[in-house]
Amino acid sequence: MRHLLGIQELSAEEICKLVELARSFLALSRRPVKKAPILRGKTVINLFFEPSTRTRTSFEIAGKRLGADVVNLSAKASAVEKGETLLDTARTLQAMNADVIVIRHRLAGAPHLIAQHLARGAVVNAGDGAHEHPTQVLADLVTLAEHGGWEGKTIAIVGDIAHSRVARSHLWASRKLGYRVRLVAPKTLLPAEVERFGCEVFTDLDAAIEGADVLYMLRVQTERLESRALFPSLREYHEAYGLTKARLARAKKGCLVMHPGPMNRGVEIASEVADGLASLVLEQVEHGVAARMAVLVSLCGGEAS
Ligand code: NCD
Q1: How far apart are CA 33 and CA 24, in angstroms?
Q2: Separation of alpha carbons 194 and 192, rounded Å
Q3: What pLDDT does 304 receive?
Q4: Atom of ligand 1 minimally distant from the CA of 164
Q5: Which domains does the chain carry?
């Protein structure tokens, strides 16, 4: 593996290997001394052109726990603000001998463009537009693995599918790993030609909940909606697509609730569900660090790869 650009490019075997490697790092993060200097001497640069709490911090923590030097660069504080192109920025970071460039960008394909032009170093996609978010899905797969695995499971992904790179990466993963995905959204938040995705599509949340093993709630990405009114109001969205305690009570026994964060409490998920016993939201965050450790180790070598 030279770069990690998407789940699309990975084989089932590679995905499973990353998930198992991530699981082997879980114990390390729970120790009083959270350090295994496998990546000592390596340099990881986080290049984020979009806001992020979980992804950026977990790449930083992942790198540091493995002993790498981690540098964070946000677009606002970089020469991009002075008109430098994305490729020149990437070439500059390469000239500093970065081993891994982790990039988040609002444009789909930005990490791929950089990867094509860099002769050295690895590129990791930390979310490109509505295209892919492979490390989030690796974190989710670690979470599923810790809860009995994904085999034979049905995951209902609910909400703003149209703008969700997480949903797209899950679709790729589900095809490769063999779990079932149901997409659940109002028609206006479903991508064009959604039937081509080859999975079940629901516009009725209550129907989709029936028989689902996991309810995977998505944030309504208001920053990507532009001025288009894709649903009447957030209150009405919550009525029809919000996961409430009453709705969850009608789900299959043991049904789990996931969300990649950040959550809009009271919109796609009620607080009592987000903080309830079925919620794996904070486990996903913890597993996100382990998943990123696995990715960094797989890309820049080290004893555990
Ligand atoms: C997601 C993203 O940025 O794609 N967040 C994340 O990385 N955990 C989902 C979102 O922004 O709603």
Answers
A1: 16
A2: 5
A3: 46
A4: 4
A5: 7-132+285-300 (3.40.50.1370), 148-279 (3.40.50.1370)
**Helix spans in the chain (H):** 12-29, 54-65, 86-95, 110-117, 134-146, 165-177, 205-209, 234-241, 245-249, 271-274, 281-300
Beta bridge partners of 103: 47, 125
Residue having the nearest C-alpha atom to atom 7 of ligand 1 = 55
Higher pLDDT, 305 or 130: 130
Q: Is the pLDDT of residue 227 over 60?
A: no
- Judging by DSSP bridges, how do beta strands 69-74 and 43-48 pair with one another? parallel
Long-range contacts, 25-28 (Cβ 8 Å, 24+): 25/289, 25/290, 25/293, 25/294, 26/142, 26/146, 26/286, 26/287, 26/290, 28/65, 28/293
Return the sign of the alpha-carbon dihedral for residues 275, 23, 140, 60: positive
Q: Which long-range contacts (CB under 8 A, 24 or more apart) does 190-199 make?
A: 190/161, 190/162, 191/161, 191/162, 194/161, 197/171, 199/171, 199/174
**Tokens standing for residue 266:** 């009271």
55: Cβ below 6 Å to ligand 1?
Answer: yes
Parallel, antiparallel, or unpaired: how do β-strands 200-202 and 43-48 relate? Answer: unpaired
Across 173-245, the runs of DSSP E, i.e. the strands, are 180-184, 200-202, 214-217
Atom of ligand 1 lying closest to residue 104 CA: 3
pLDDT digits (tens, 9 = 90+) for 22-48: 999 999 999 999 999 999 999 999 999
Q: Which amino acid is at 222?
A: T
User: Which tens digits make up the pLDDT trace of 184-211?
Assistant: 999 999 998 888 888 999 999 999 999 9
Residue with CA closest to ligand 1 atom 3: 127
Q: What is the pTM of this model?
A: 0.96
- Residue 34, Cβ density class (10 Å: 0-12 exposed, 13-18 middle, ≥19 buried): middle
The average confidence (pLDDT) of the chain is: 94
CA 262 to ligand 1 center in whole angstroms: 7
Strand partners for 158? 184, 217
